[in-house]
Amino acid sequence: MKAFFLLLTTAATVLAADDWLNVIKLKGGTELRIIRDGSKQPFVAQMDHASDDSLFIATKKEQTVIPKDEIERIDYRPKFGSRIVKQSAVTKSGPGNPAPSEQRVGGGSPGPSQSASTNVSFGPKPDFETIYRRK
Prior knowledge:
Elements: H1 2-25, E1 31-36, E2 43-50, E3 54-58, E4 63-67, E5 71-76, E6 84-93, E7 113-122, E8 129-133
Antiparallel strand pairs: 1-2, 1-5, 2-3, 3-4, 5-8, 6-7
């Protein structure tokens, strides 16, 4: 029975270590949502780096170190390519009956015209994904 308990705790330690290795591999500047022990709400910060026993983060006001033992869960926001969406359109029109805003001074008939428009919009940020959960 003792051997089974020892095997079970060793497996749990190895699995928790694997999750923490994923945190260590994250790049600096990654957006994190951190849930600490006893905290009612998570807080969001930018990752600086992680060591074997601590997480170094940067908030808007300060840089902080959080011991691994105080962290219940860490979620990160993956960076997928560009969120910028660009749309372009070109409109051509030939001579004919021009609109009043297109009429030339002097009464001459306008020739072919062309107009272009470009719209740029930002897509939504990707959702947070859990990368570490204390066992």
